[in-house]
Amino acid sequence: MSMQRNLTTFSEQDIASLRPAMKVGILATVSDEGLPHVTLLSSLQAVSPTTLTFGQFIEGRSKSYVRKSPRAGFLVMTLQREIWRGAALFTRTERGGREFDQYNQVPMFRYNAYFGIHTVYYLDLVGHGGKESLPMGRIASAALATAAACAFHRGPRAAEAMNPWTRRLFNGLANPKFAAWIGPDGFPRIVPAFPARAASGSRILCSVQACREELEEIPSGAIVALFGMTLSMEDVLVRGTFRGIQQIGPARCLVLDVDWVYNPMPPVPGQIYPAEELRAVKDFSPTRAH
Questions:
Q1: Which range of residues forms the domain containing residue 40?
Q2: With b meaning 16 or more CB within 10 Å and e meaning fewer, what string describes 186-212?
């Protein structure tokens, strides 16, 4: 499984496939520190052969990041386990217009008493690799290999960055996971990493059987983000240092040492590890969301 960004437009069939609200949309952005950040955006879709959009209804770091650093990577996975991946450039936002109205007619937002889409983000397509089908047989085999590697794992002792809930999410065999890193062109790259599993509270392993070529492109020492989610839309984001691909027990595995954990879920996304200092609220004046 590999992705080459050699298509510069979406076909009519691509646009139709990416339209349904029930899908997984992943956007990878570049943080203020130049690190990969990954967000679940089910509203991500293609609205023309060269344009993608997504709608904002909560505040999160990805929106701030893409405004400052417009290079982004995207992945959309349909209920049929077909995926589209590529790169795009953020160009503008709108608070009205055709896409704004269409988003707010979707039942999730139309009948929600608490929030709707308040801003639509537009991105110009740079390139994508066309429709891919997930190799579920190889993914299942890689998941078993990763579990066996975790049983053999004897890694260095380190602070427990991931709490038990986070480890359980990553260790769920049916839970989708996606790895992202910054490519040499400055665009984040996303690769499915479904076999990834927490070997300890600070280390994640992932057999490379399913996506060997792409995982081997990650330079040792790079900072890699790993996004995990459940089918009930619970999710978590971790980030750490890629220690290369190593033979651990019976499997060759990607090794990621985790030192940062983030909760992307509403109503209040925020950093979990390292724990941030609690600060007293001193200004109670109303503010306007941006």
A1: 12-132
A2: ebbbbbbbbbbbbbbbbbbbbbbbbbb
